[in-house]
Every structure is written in structure tokens, then in C-alpha cells.
Amino acid sequence: MDKIIALAKRRGFVYPSSEIYGGISGFWDYGPLGAELKNNIKRLWWQTMVYQREDVVGIDAAIIMNPKVWETSGHTSSFTDPLVECKSCHLRFRADKIEDNRCPNCQAKNNFTEEKKFNLLTEVYLGVTEPKQKAYLRGEITQGVFVNFKNIIDSFRVKIPFGVAQIGKAFRNEITPGNFTYRSREFEQMELEFFIKPEEKEVEKWFNYWTEERFNWYVNLGIKKNRLRLREHKEEERAHYAKKALDIEYQAPFGWSEFEGIHHRGDWDLSRHNLRYKDKETNEEYFPWVIETSGGVDRSALFFLIDSYQEKNGRVVLQLNPLLSPIKVAVFPLLANKESLVKKARQIYDLIKRKFITIWDDRGNIGKRYFSQDEIGTPFCVTIDFQTLEDETVTVRDRDTTKQERIKISKLETYLKEKINQL
Ligand code: GAP
């Protein structure tokens, strides 16, 4: 983890938030490469979950909602973690994360206060007159979908079974943020709420279907299959809204960890918000049941970084799927002080830049430039050399094989497109 954290900071993936003021626990800022990586994850998720399907639409709801939403959904009373305080060092911890009844800070054994329920919702205060109106930053992005259920069915031709997808920020006042971005207080979720008929056989069909879809999505994007597993929650672990819950877990350096949750929420939410569905053909009215897939953008970014991190002969290579790579192509003039090479390289850079996220580098020797791109996962480096000036070809160096191929400039765009877009 130390290597990943150091690389993330040094190369502009992730910085501690407000670092010049000592940081703030549980908050992180994404730098230029981190922002690209997250955007790629979100775009690919939206492509798979919305654009490539006929039965899913996407929305973007507000972060702050009427507080009645959270009372009705059960979050103000039940969205809690068990909290204990160590009587020796007075630090507070999540009771379910303590091993052997020993304080993770001062090692004191069996010396904790009684367990208390600690609510994870983050409060905010709105308005200009006192007392200000108390509201909450959303603890899950999900409720924005449920409270818009009627709006969506009234304004869009959707028919059960159908899904509503959303990506956005959620906030939790986590007791112990940690493991880098893994457990943060501000994070992004990418979720699907899939509405089905309230029947057990439908649950079984769609729960299994979405589990497989989501598992394969990570595998298709390059996560090693042997580092993924499915784990069903025991009853006492389940969130207050879930009738059944299964985690897709990743074998992180800090242990098997939740990547994404698949939940059977039944009619927990729609029945509380009193939102029914009417089948226009049969006139049947009912509260649909919901199968939910809920993944984390930040956890995906972290696990893609960890999973793709390789050290080869003392150099670091991020073997990211090119679709995820923040930079797709780097363009180098062989020598920075040869005007004819630089001019030609600039022309090629301008050409490629319109099609792919491309970076220019003319510092140091070519070997160092390759290594610098390997470290951030750039799949292709294009070098303009003296032969380019004679025969209109460039070398394209592949990050994973380190092999170089000579490609005609006129074929370069097609060549890169094929290699970058293959899943
Ligand atoms: N709507 C259901 C829901 O929110 P969850 O299991 O509490 O379910 C879903 O969260 C996903 O959100 C997790 O699998 C994880 O990827 C992400 N997530 C949850 N809490 C997080 C945190 N504190 N920091 C980063 N990501 C988090």
C-alpha cells in the first residue's frame, strides 16, 4: 500500500485533501491523472449500465434532500455503526472491526465502553434565519432514485422490469476512515436500482443476473479473477433495508474488502415513500421490489491501481486496461534540440490529440520517458525520429510487451483506435 500511496501522490492521482493545512481525515483530492481515471471508470460504467441497455435510464438527483426522505427511509434511526471508546487511550472505534477485544491504538485488552449506535449521516444547516433548517448530505445516492420513482414512470416510457442508474457523491461520518481512499467520508457511488415484480422467482433471476454482470464487468476491465470473490452477508451484517446482500470482494493488501454490494431491498423504500407502480396492461397495482447494484468509484479506482501495479526489473508499470488509462498516447521527438524532429512531432501530436488523450514529452532520454509513461499506465508511446522525416513512419512502443513497431503516420490513428478500444 505504501508504494501505491506514494505513486498516487508523486504522479498526481490522489492527494490528501487540504494537505497544506494538515489534511482532514477521510477526505481526498484527485489530481490530473486520478480525475481522468475516475472519469474513465464512470463513463465505462454508464456505457455498460445505461447506453448498452434498453431497460435502464439514468438520472442525477440532488445531494441534499428534504430531511423527511431520510426519516422515512429509516436512515435517521438505523443507518448506524456500533461505536466503542477505549477507556485507556480514549480513542473511538467501530466495534465490529476490533480484533481480539484489543485496542488497535494502545493495545489495551477488554477495556472498552458499552457499544453505542453511531449515526453515519452528515448534518448540514441551511437558510439565513435562526434556527437554521437541519438537512443531511445523502448517505447513499439511492434515495434520489426512489423519491423520483413517480416522476420517472410519468415522464418516461418504462415498464417493469426496468432500472434507474445514477452516479454521484455520498457522505458518511465514518468512525474510522482508513486504508487510503478505501473508507472515506466523501466518496462516489455508481448504482443501479432495478425494479421487478414482487415475486421470489423474479428476485432469484435478477439477483443472480446482476451479480454475474457486475462481477464480469470488473474482470473484463482487467481485475484478476483470482483476487475477486463473492460473499453473502450474515443477517446481523445486513443494512436495515436489505433482505439479502452479497458483496463482490477484492483481495486488497489489507485483506478481502468490499468492492460492490448487490442487495435485495424488497419494497422497503417504495412502500415507505408510498410509491406504487401500475401495470398499464393488467391494471395491477403494487410496490415493486428492488435489486440494487451499488459500487464505489473511489474503491474501483483504488483496486484498479493496486491490481495493475507491477514491478519489472526495478521499474514500475501500471498494466491498466487502455480504456482505463488516464493518458492513452505519449508523443516524443527523439531529440528536443533538433528543430525538424520537433516540428514533425508537434504535427503528429496535434493530429493524435484530437482523437485520444495525449501527452507531449521531450525531456531526458527516450528510455526515461518510456519508464515515466509506464508508471502511469500509458499504453502507447509514439516516437518521431530521423527515419520519420524520410519515410513518414513512426515507432509505436507497447507498454506491456515493450516492443516497438514502425507504423505509417497515415495508419497511426486506426492502429491506436483498434488497440485502445478493445475490451
Ligand atoms: N445504496 C446501497 C449502499 O449504499 P453500501 O454497501 O453501504 O450500499 C455501496 O455502499 C458501495 O459504496 C460500497 O460497496 C463501496 O464501494 C462504496 N462505499 C461505501 N462506503 C464507502 C466509504 N466510506 N468510502 C468509500 N466507498 C464507500
- Attached small molecules: glycyl-adenosine-5'-phosphate
Strand content: 25-35%
Poorly predicted runs are none
Which structural class fits the helix and strand makeup?
Answer: alpha+beta
Name of the level-1 CATH class of the largest domain: Alpha Beta
Q: Helix share of residues?
A: 25-40%
CATH topology group of the largest domain: BirA Bifunctional Protein, domain 2
The CATH architecture name of the largest domain reads: 2-Layer Sandwich
What oligomeric arrangement do these chains adopt?
single chain
**What about the largest sheet?**
7 strands, mixed
Q: What's the tally of helices?
A: 13
Quick rundown:
By secondary structure, the protein is of the alpha+beta class. The protein is 31% helix and 29% strand. Strand 17 and strand 18 form a beta hairpin.
Structural features, described:
This protein is α+β, with helices and mostly antiparallel strands and 423 residues long. The chain folds into two domains: 2-79 and 120-307, BirA Bifunctional Protein, domain 2 (2-Layer Sandwich); 329-420, Rossmann fold. The protein has helices spanning 2-10, 32-51, 67-72, 75-78, 143-146, 149-155, 200-220, 268-272, 297-308, 339-353, 366-374, 386-391, 409-421; strands spanning 14-16, 28-30, 56-58, 80-85, 92-94, 116-119, 122-126, 133-137, 162-171, 186-196, 228-232, 244-252, 255-266, 277-278, 285-286, 289-296, 309-312, 315-318, 329-333, 358-360, 380-384, 393-398, 404-408. The strands form seven sheets. A seven-stranded mixed β-sheet has the order 3-9-10-16-13-12-11. A five-stranded mixed β-sheet has the order 20-19-21-22-23, sandwiched between helices. Helix 2 (32-51) packs across helix 9 (297-308). It is globular, with a radius of gyration of 25 Å. The two termini are 28 Å apart. The model has no long low-confidence stretch (mean pLDDT 96).
